[in-house]
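Entry 14. Structure prediction run on the chain below.
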Amino acid sequence: MSTMCAAAIGNIISDVAGVMMGTVVEDFARKFGLEWETNLSRIQMKLRSVMLAKKVGCAVGITIGCIIGMIPLLFIDGNAAKRKNKEAAVDRIFKDIASEAKKFIGAESTTLFLVVKGESYNQAVDDNDEKEDYHLWSKYADKASGKLQELRIPYAQGIIGQVAINRETISMHDIRREEDLGIGAVLSDTRNMICCPVFDSKGNVIAVINATNKQDQGSATFSESDSSKPREFLTNDIQALQALGTHVSVALQNLEDMDDDNMSLAETIKMLKENKIGV
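Output returned:
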């Protein structure tokens, strides 16, 4: 039900209740000696000044009644539903990245990290703010249960943080052979990974997408001679992840406008895979 429809129905109910309760209020006032009798004749009742006073009195009464009726609005959080819908939209994006993006890239796992200040989603870093005020927030798929688990890390920590700060994609073909890059430790079971920044319409980093452990072909094309070699992320995979980042950016910047009629991120990822984006 739309807001205007709800307001119209509420107005009808209040007007009908006012008409039906008019005599009840008069009888109640009469019990307390507040009965008011007029000595005006019928001719005087038809005078313009008398009729005007009557209409003004009715208008003032209705206005006061409407104001009293709106008092409960002071105790209602009008943004609660909007926040709930926004949180649900963010969770859907996390879930779509965790479940569908890994199939698109051909990775063991894919994770989205949002740049967050406090509880604000889609918050680009302000150069005037301290970097300590921000952190990277993610919900990743737990391998054992498959459920989304929450993770928060400092903004400048680890590989993910460096991608957000440097605004450049990082591709590591064999982490076990990489020299100390000074960008923090990675999980012991991670063999290779790519991390791609996600930009908003102003060019600010609002998120980072991470893909770890190349598993199958995904968006890349392998020859038969490569079948026995350990899988590595190729240029095609990087291009595919960057293409996905563009769609993630659009979704994050339009959280409040997302509804069931819009194409979900999961559907977008499937469309990208069907059209072999990144090949």
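DSSP finds eight helices and six strands in the chain.
Filed with the rest of this week's runs.
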